[in-house]
Amino acid sequence: MAVLTQRNPGSKAISVTKSTTDCDVLIIGGGLVGASLACMLENTGLSVQIVEAWPLKSDVQPSYDDRTVALSWGSRCIFEGMGIWDAMADRVEAIKTIHISDRGHFGATRLRHDEENVEALGYVAENRVLGEVLYDRLQQNDRLVLHCPAGLTGIEQNTDQVVASIEQDQQHKTVNARLLVAADGVISQVRDLLHIGSSAQDYGQAAVIANVTPARPHNNVAYERFTDQGPIAFLPMTGRRCSVVWTVPVDQAEALMALGDEDFLRQLQQRFGYRLGQLEQAGKRQMYPLRLVETTQVARNRVVIVGNAAHSVHPVAGQGFNLALRDIAMLAELMSAAKDPGERNLLQSYVEQREDDARRVYRFTDSLVKIFSNSNAPLGHLRAAGLIAVGLIAPLRHQLARQSMGLGGRASVLGRRSVNG
Ligand SMILES: Cc1cc2nc3c(=O)[nH]c(=O)nc-3n(C[C@H](O)[C@H](O)[C@H](O)COP(=O)(O)OP(=O)(O)OC[C@H]3O[C@@H](n4cnc5c(N)ncnc54)[C@H](O)[C@@H]3O)c2cc1C
Fold first, then answer.
1. What is the DSSP-derived secondary structure letter of residue 165?
2. Cα–ligand 1 centroid distance for 59 (angstroms)
3. What single DSSP character describes residue 57?
4. Rounded to the nearest whole angstrom, what is the distance from the C-alpha of residue 27 to the centroid of ligand 1?
5. Which residues line ligand 1 (CB under 6 A)?
6. Ligand 1: which residue has its CA nearest to atom 1?
7. What residues have CB less than 8 Å from 225, skipping those under 6 apart?
8. CA angle, residues 369, 373, 374, in degrees to nearest 5
9. Are 12 and 139 in contact (CB under 8 A)?
10. Ligand 1 centroid – CA 62 distance (Å)
11. Which of 28, 184, 192 most suits a substitution to test ligand 1, by most atoms within 8 Å of the C-beta?
């Protein structure tokens, strides 16, 4: 196999093949989910290749952008099991309390880490930081082949392998893989090439995100404030900042994007209130239209679809990446125990074992959006009553905390390993 070395922006040397190659697992998309899966497969003996469309440190790289992700406690356990938690622990902020309230109504609830006997309910990580940690780890793996930036031009599914055609630096390459994993995001080219459909539910909402510095310290509290237009989340970040995810109808999101920083902060303050004192500074804003997108088929003939390509959920409860991480931890576990990572029974078993968790997450996020982004007055009173009930009744709080911590359902071996919680 001819191997040449290409320098990626900001990276050390990465091996790139120039001819037809064989591998066990070919991952299309080296974003948060694809790169995490490649790390999980490191010690399984399986040969792995990744095709990633964008240079890793480019401004347009869609996975490692300015967003943050609220990692659940369960995701921390998975990262610990993978051996990369230590590399990120100093660069994330713990969520010790989650404060949930409904603007204009009495009733709030607090979920607390000490009630759940864990060090934190979750952690806030910058997507860029996660990308750096994942790729630092991948670069230590001599066997991994990364094609980047490279594009997929075709896929052929056979009984015993998948043949992927890719293009890099105007050269064509062919990769024969026993399993192809589509981790290429919500607008998945793999799904398109294989004519796998998807269902989409448009919420008519968009998330405007920005990092904001308030006058008062966040004290590791994550605020989820529901308003009649959509939820606002203030997530604690390092350096006294908060990561704001402000969900509003699409036309209002466009108007918010067009405001100057001062006017933006004034409107945000008006909707969120003064729990964190005066909002003093806002970083760059970005806008993401929100839809619930679900693939019609998760696995088919040596191809499996993961991450946003499989299901993209509303960010209201910070569940999307956490769900994907639980999915791929299970996939990696099944693959490590199998002779053939693409065999039909393995993929069938993966689909069956992961179905319930995904359904639970869809129901949880979808009902939060529908119940809480609503100005109907009787519903408002019910919501308030619900929040008070959850605040007062410990088992209800515990159930909500476990869902937020990503601890519903059977954990993979990676998720069960380590951690004192
Ligand atoms: C505003 C917002 C806030 C969020 N907050 C949270 C949160 O707090 N907690 C949480 O768990 N989740 C959160 N999420 C969800 C989380 O961002 C996603 O689950 C996660 O980004 C999915 O990662 P992915 O790798 O599947 O897809 P992506 O991040 O879209 O990455 C896809 C990768 O594939 C590459 N690619 C695309 N097409 C091709 C191709 N044809 N060939 C090769 N490569 C290709 C792309 O360049 C990219 O690197 C949030 C989402 C949004 C929008």
1. E
2. 15
3. T
4. 14
5. 28-34, 51-54, 62-63, 67, 69-70, 151-152, 183-185, 189, 207, 209, 245, 288, 307-308, 315, 318-322, 324
6. 207
7. 100, 101, 102, 103, 231, 232, 233, 234, 271, 272, 273
8. 130
9. yes
10. 7
11. 184
Record the tokens describing residue 67, joined without a space: 């967003």
| The pair of three-digit structure tokens given for residue 341, joined into one six-digit string | 């990572």
Q: In CATH, which of 3.50.50.60, 3.90.1150.10, 3.40.140.10, 3.60.40.10 is domain 3-62+130-199+292-369?
A: 3.50.50.60
Cis upstream peptide for 149 (omega within 30°): yes
44: which DSSP letter? G
The CATH number of the domain covering residues in 68-126+203-290: 3.30.9.10
Distance in Å, CA 277 to ligand 1 centroid: 32
Find the helix packing angle between 73-82 and 320-336, rounded to 10°.
Answer: 40
CA 317 to centroid of ligand 1, rounded, Å: 16
Is there a contact between 71 and 123 (Cβ–Cβ < 8 Å)? yes
Digit-by-digit pLDDT tens for the chain (421 residues) are 222 234 343 344 444 445 789 999 999 999 999 999 999 999 999 999 999 999 987 777 888 888 899 999 999 999 999 999 999 999 999 999 989 887 766 667 888 999 888 899 999 999 999 999 999 999 999 999 999 999 999 999 999 999 999 999 989 999 999 999 999 999 999 999 999 999 998 889 999 999 999 999 999 999 988 887 888 999 999 989 999 999 999 999 999 999 999 999 999 999 999 999 999 999 999 999 988 899 999 999 999 999 999 999 988 778 899 999 999 999 999 999 999 999 999 999 999 999 999 998 888 887 777 665 555 555 555 555 555 555 555 666 666 667 667 666 566 777 665 444 4
| Mutation pick for ligand 1 pocket among 67, 194, 211 (CB with most ligand atoms within 8 Å) | 67
Can you give the residue ranges of every domain in the chain? 3-62+130-199+292-369, 68-126+203-290
CA 6 and chain centroid, separation? 29
Q: Which class for 278: exposed (0-12), middle (13-18), buried (19 or more C-beta within 10 A)?
A: exposed
